[in-house]
Amino acid sequence: MLRSLLSASGANPGMITVFIDGYFEEPLGVAQLFGLRGIQHTPIGTKSARISQHYKASLTATFNIFPGAKYAIILEEDLDVSPDFFSYFGQLSRLLDEDPSLWCVSAWNDQSYEHTSKDPGLLYRVEGMPGLGWMLKRSLYKEELEAKWPGPEKVWDWDMWMRLPEVRKGRECVVPDVSRTYHFGASGLNMNSYFHDIYFKKHSFNASPDVRLRDLKSLKRKNYEELLEAMISEATVVDHSQSPCEEDFIPEKRAKAHVMYIKMEHEKDYTTWLQVAKVRNLHRGWIAKGVARGVTGDVDSFAVFQNLGPGCEGLSPRAVEIPHEGQPHPCHRSAFLRVLEAQAFGCDADLPGVPEEREESVAGFLLATLSVSSTLVDPRRPAKENGREKIPSASPRKCDTIL
């Protein structure tokens, strides 16, 4: 990691500090070999609590060592960085300063795979806190996070804590289409070789040394949501009567974005999404890590996650708006968007099954829970039985994917 970091354009060894959790001579010697400052401290807590306390101690020390620094960039030792790593953060620091609805910039995109991400100049807003190479403001840490940071008695993951609604407070992070870090560590407290091969091995990674990020003004919340709403209203709705396993479910060649609607029983119901993500070979481990109310730029396809309220029967997908913070649409209590530029896969192995057929009012346009034998509902052709809309059953379809 240190070799790639120091090779990145703009690297200043005097501004880099290596924090070591414990008194180990080997990592301290490596830091000194590269001419870098190394700081050791006494471990506090166990397991996740120890890691959490290491992060807190490192952040506090960083802002004490550099009292004039407005930002800090945090990296783990199992990451390589892109040649434009510092340029990427430098271009986005002003946006982080100007937009109070943002609280971090990350070099990592959970959905940045070789088959989904090609544009190093493209950016998104996402909920949560992606981590794996990220920047935060001094004011955020010193005025909010430092005093509230979980103590050593709480065996919590620090990043999961930061994603809690009461901590995040509706703020979002900026991520790139093509990641600026690459995760190579295959073992650790929360990592093993199988998980690494599944989720990290084929992650995209920018190799260009000089990338100019585009349309930074469009990332401000109001501009971003307006752009997203326009993209959804103009997008082509996919044929929901088809299985996502079909090669042409999302056409390989398309002139504009495609949209699919996924039904949710409640705002934390990701049953359908987990199956769709598996079929389309996307990260499905924790949905909110890469989710936002919207996406921006030349997006080929995306999905809208819908949690319907009462009184929404007969509503057209085109009428559904992206909710603004604190102003939920009466028929759209929560909406999240995913980049779903997809690659076709074979369809041979079983998916985890759920009941073949579900019968209920679905407002005429959303998805049934995807299973081995139920398909997406075509919003333009709702089926009816006894005056009620019914999820049409389909012949069993099996999907074989990498994930």
Description:
Keywords: Glycosyltransferase, Golgi apparatus, Manganese, Membrane, Metal-binding, Signal-anchor, Transferase, Transmembrane, Transmembrane helix. It comes from Darwinula stevensoni. Initiates complex N-linked carbohydrate formation. Essential for the conversion of high-mannose to hybrid and complex N-glycans. With about 400 residues, this protein is α/β, with parallel strands linked by helices. The chain has two domains: about 1-215, Spore Coat Polysaccharide Biosynthesis Protein SpsA, Chain A (Alpha-Beta Complex), CATH 3.90.550; about 220-403, no CATH class. About 25% of the residues lie in helices and about 15% in strands. The protein is built from ten helices and 15 strands. Strands 3-7-5-8-6 form a five-stranded mixed β-sheet, sandwiched between helices. A four-stranded mixed β-sheet has the order 10-11-12-13, with helices on one face. A two-stranded parallel sheet has the order 1-2. A hairpin with a 2-residue loop joins β14 (about 385) and β15 (about 390). α3 packs antiparallel against α5 (about 140-150). The protein is globular and about 60 Å long.
Chain-averaged pLDDT: 73
- Our estimate of the beta-strand percent is 15-25%
User: Can you identify the CATH class of the largest domain?
Assistant: Alpha Beta
Instruction: Give Rg in angstroms.
Output: 22 Å
What is the element string, with H for helices and E for strands?
A: HEHEHEEHEEEHHHEEHHEEHEEEE
How many strands appear in the DSSP assignment?
A: 15
* Discrete helix count: 10
Query: What is the number of independent domains?
Result: 2
CATH domain topology of the largest domain: Spore Coat Polysaccharide Biosynthesis Protein SpsA, Chain A
Q: Please state how the strands of the largest beta sheet are arranged side by side.
A: 3-7-5-8-6
Low-confidence stretches: 284-290, 292-299, 307-403
At the fourth level of CATH, the homologous superfamily of the largest domain is Spore Coat Polysaccharide Biosynthesis Protein SpsA, Chain A
The level of helicity is: 10-25%
- Going by helix content, strand content and strand pairing, the class is alpha/beta
Distance between the termini: 28 Å
Pfam families: GNT-I
Pathway: Protein modification; protein glycosylation
Function: Initiates complex N-linked carbohydrate formation. Essential for the conversion of high-mannose to hybrid and complex N-glycans.
Membrane topology: Single-pass type II membrane protein
